[in-house]
Amino acid sequence: MAASIQDGRLQNHKPSVLQRTEESSSLLIQALETNDANLLDWCIENTSPPKELSSLHLSHLLHFLASRFWVYSTFSSLNWIHSLLASNIQKMHHAEEFRPVLEDLSSKLKAKTQGFKQLARLKDTLHLITDQNQEKSFTIISEAHVTVNEEA
Predict the structure, then answer these.
(1) What is the pLDDT of residue 10?
(2) Which domain of life, per UniProt (predicted)?
């Protein structure tokens, strides 16, 4: 089943619904199970990523983080994604239930970073132009024997 998402792509995967359990002691688990975006945002901003999560919770959390990174591009979301992937690599390796989540995450990260090369080239070009303009200005000033007061 395909669903339209914010960036215009079709999303073919939505993690299955989490069931609320009585042993959900952590705020993060409670936020995932109740689908509380505000509490999830608070957890991401104010706590460190967990080392151990069930596969279903991990799938939901990665899906949420990918969506948050797509919309807000926050460093904390990217940091959590990196940490969760690094600490759960064994669990996710060759696990089919993670394939749609990881493909979605990959496509969102690619879409967000595809312009970085062009931005780096633009920055270098602007740097070069700025440096050339500064050299020309210095040459004109030194040839005219004008002293520039840098405090002004």
Answers:
(1) 47
(2) Eukaryota
pLDDT (mean) for 86-96 = 89
- Report which DSSP code applies to 144: T
Please tell me the predicted confidence (pLDDT) of residue 32: 93
Is 103:66 a contact under the CB 8 Å cutoff?
Answer: no
CA distances, 85 to each of 61, 70, 78, 127, 129 (Å) = 11, 17, 11, 36, 41
Amino acid type, 13: H
DSSP structure class, residue 94: T
What residues pair up with 4 in beta bridges, in sequence order? Answer: 10
* CA 110 – CA 113 distance, rounded (Å): 5
- Smallest CA-to-CA distance from 60 within 111, 109, 100, 10 is with 100
How far is the C-alpha of 110 from the C-alpha of 100, rounded, in Å? 15
What is residue 43's three-state secondary structure?
Answer: helix
Between the alpha carbon of residue 80 and those of residues 10, 29, 51, 119, the distances in Å are 24, 15, 11, 25
**69 with 78: CB under 8 angstroms?**
yes
Q: At what angle do helices 37-46 and 27-34 cross, to 10 degrees?
A: 150
